[in-house]
Amino acid sequence: MDQASFQTSTLKSNQTAFGRKQRILSGMRSTGKLHLGNYVGALANWVKLQETYDSYFFIADWHALTSDYADTSRIKQNSIEVMLDYVAAGLDPQKCTMFIQSHVPEHAELHLLLSMITPLSWLERVPTYKEQQQNIREKDLNTYGFLGYPLLQSADIMIYQAEFVPVGEDQVPHIEITREIARRFNGFYPRLVKPGDSNPGRTYVFPEPQALLTPSPKLPGTDGRKMSKSYGNSILMSDPEPVVRQKLKTMVTDPARVRRTDPGNPDVCPIGDVHKIFSSKDTLQKVYAGCRSAGIGCIECKSWAADALVSVENVETL
To answer: Is residue 318 in a domain?
Structure first.
């Protein structure tokens, strides 16, 4: 079954054996205002999922400490701003549960208990651990908190017994380690059913969550890497029009297009990715034709991309 079919079938039959809707959980760190990559990669999808699932979306302020432990002065305000971004993007408190992680101390309690049974090697093999250590050089990430943040993520998911976690493909390893931890915990501490119960035998404390992979476009940052607050390459959801235009002016383009007269390739150009997400079909056709024939230059192409971005309804106030 392909990814789209899986989501469709899940949406149609999302009742658990307990009669409730299937539960999803996801969250974002409170390390600053959210950017357009957060919106197109996650938030826009969450807005759709809240209509069908028992949805829990949280602000991961403890996760923010894994990299920002040296200066916590902004975490509280950032949490408020992230919540505003959630609501502005379309999350409805009447349709989903939104909360701040540190306001539910049981997350930390379960994290501690899970740390007793989780092999260190499981945490060391998570791909993003080494990736972020390589990319974030200005901070000392050689801490247990940073190494153990996938375990805290597991606690976040398991404490609500979520069946699904909406994530991108790069986050699948985090869901896999959560499944392994849930399986290990259930093996050590199965819940015994009383004699005479209609379902004799052992039941498990924690379900093994699955990644809910949904198609989401990839929006690169201004330097061509993945858009990330940590990399300083973001276009914020709350950026006003002049700032959006200025950031797009500095965005990298097709490295093979050195001169104005050189043809380019929109499929390898970060500006091309912006057009694919935000521009109309007519503009996108002009971009492909003009770039490949050198009929337009990068400056004009960036200007069109900025026009598309700022014309999207509520971009400034998302």
So the answer is: no
Dihedral of CA atoms 16, 21, 22, 28 in degrees, nearest 10, equals -160
Q: Rounded to a whole number, what is the largest CA-CA distance in the chain? A: 81
The answer to whether 90 touches 39, Cβ cutoff 8 Å, is: no
The mean-pLDDT minimum among 43-57, 100-114, 124-138, 159-173 falls in 124-138
pLDDT tens-digit series, residues 156-215: 999 999 999 998 888 899 999 999 999 999 999 887 656 665 555 567 789 999 999 877
Task: Report the CATH number at residue 175.
Answer: 3.40.50.620
Question: Could you count the other beta carbons within 10 Å of the beta carbon of residue 153?
Answer: 21
Q: Is position 219 within any domain? A: no
If one counts the domains in the chain, the total is 2
pLDDT bucket at 119, cuts 50 / 70 / 90: very high
Range of the domain at 287: 239-311
Is there a single domain that holds both residue 157 and residue 275?
A: no
Judge contact between 209 and 164, C-beta under 8 A. Answer: yes
Mean pLDDT of 101-126: 96
Same domain (yes/no): 172, 247: no
In this prediction the pTM is 0.81
Q: What angle do CA 92, 93, 97 make, to 5 degrees?
A: 115
